[in-house]
């Protein structure tokens, strides 16, 4: 089963997790990380790293963030590059999480990411999809190495 780390500003992550648990019961491999004003990015990174390790049982982890490019998204992006089967989604809301909850057990992390983004909900994207639009910078010198 895919682990979920819901990371949002203020109390929104915990609120979404509480609503999901009210509907589905206790959620295994799911953590909320609330990013409060004044919280250092170092502390946020530590909280995100802890949540990643608490939710990953080998099938992968989905970071579900509220705003693309904001601190929780950036922290998740940095962690995702160090771990296999990690995906970063931005623009999430409760209705989307409720709809996607049943798919945690049956999809791979990449399939989950694609299914979520292909729902075409305004503002929802993934780090992977953003990287396809903006490929990494490559030095011309590196292109011509033999």
Automatic annotation (TrEMBL):
Alphabetized InterPro entries for the sequence: Bacterial_PTS_sugar_comp (IPR051471), PTS_EIIA_man-typ (IPR004701), PTS_EIIA_man-typ_sf (IPR036662), PTS_IIA_man (IPR033887)
Alphabetical UniProt keywords: Cytoplasm, Kinase, Phosphotransferase system, Sugar transport, Transferase, Transport
Principal subcellular localisation of the protein: cytoplasm
Domain PTS EIIA type-4, residue spans: 1-124
The keyword Transmembrane is annotated on this UniProt entry: no
Superkingdom of origin organism: Bacteria
Keyword Kinase: yes
Subcellular location: Cytoplasm
Protein name: PTS sugar transporter subunit IIA
Species of the source: Enterobacter quasimori
Organism phylogeny: Bacteria, Pseudomonadati, Pseudomonadota, Gammaproteobacteria, Enterobacterales
